[in-house]
């Protein structure tokens, strides 16, 4: 039997809130946000049913800082990462369980009506394909992926 395994998730959806960037006590950047994915189907009776799933996403280090700059509520984003499960005890002493996606890469999509926050445009300029950022600008860096969970103490996470 092979000892190889895969933990990979791919999501395409819209951010439900602005990314929240924080830093651990040792200075490591951590960014959290939620992504909504939708699916719909038609029942035997002809009724259309819509379903929404919400995904908690966490990014670390440079990727966290990029998320806070390039993503915002309502934006469409393509995400790649892995699923993790954590347990913690809340302020009331109750045991809580969290499922989250640890982000490894993302692409931010722009609808042509809004630019990334670090770009400016005069209101009278027309919007066309030449005004949109290149795909290269939207893709995150291709630095080697590192597993950061072992370096971070869950007690250091500020949320």
UniProtKB/TrEMBL annotation:
<dbReference type="GO" id="GO:0003697">
    <property type="term" value="F:single-stranded DNA binding"/>
</dbReference>
<dbReference type="InterPro" id="IPR000424">
    <property type="entry name" value="Primosome_PriB/ssb"/>
</dbReference>
<dbReference type="GO" id="GO:0006260">
    <property type="term" value="P:DNA replication"/>
</dbReference>
<dbReference type="GO" id="GO:0009295">
    <property type="term" value="C:nucleoid"/>
</dbReference>
<feature type="region of interest" description="Disordered">
    <location>
        <begin position="113"/>
        <end position="159"/>
    </location>
</feature>
<comment type="subunit">
    <text>Homotetramer.</text>
</comment>
<keyword id="KW-0238">DNA-binding</keyword>
<protein>
    <recommendedName>
        <fullName>Single-stranded DNA-binding protein</fullName>
    </recommendedName>
</protein>
<feature type="compositionally biased region" description="Basic and acidic residues">
    <location>
        <begin position="113"/>
        <end position="151"/>
    </location>
</feature>
<dbReference type="InterPro" id="IPR012340">
    <property type="entry name" value="NA-bd_OB-fold"/>
</dbReference>
<dbReference type="InterPro" id="IPR011344">
    <property type="entry name" value="ssDNA-bd"/>
</dbReference>
<dbReference type="Pfam" id="PF00436">
    <property type="entry name" value="SSB"/>
</dbReference>
């Amino acid at each position: 039997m092979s000892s190889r395994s895969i933990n990979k998730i791919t999501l395409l959806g819209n951010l439900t809130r602005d990314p929240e960037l924080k830093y651990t006590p040792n200075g490591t950047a951590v960014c959290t946000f939620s992504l909504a994915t939708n699916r719909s189907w038609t029942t035997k009776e002809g009724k259309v049913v819509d379903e929404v799933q919400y995904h908690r996403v966490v990014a670390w280090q440079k990727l966290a800082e990029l998320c806070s700059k390039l993503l915002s509520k309502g934006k469409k984003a393509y995400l790649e990462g892995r699923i993790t499960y954590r347990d913690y005890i809340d302020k009331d002493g109750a045991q809580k369980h969290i499922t989250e996606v640890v982000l490894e890469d993302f692409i931010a999509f722009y609808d042509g009506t809004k630019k990334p926050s670090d770009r400016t445009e005069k209101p009278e300029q027309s919007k066309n394909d030449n005004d949109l950022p290149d795909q290269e600008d939207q893709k995150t860096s291709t630095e080697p992926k590192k597993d950061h969970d072992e370096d971070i103490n869950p007690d250091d996470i500020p949320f």
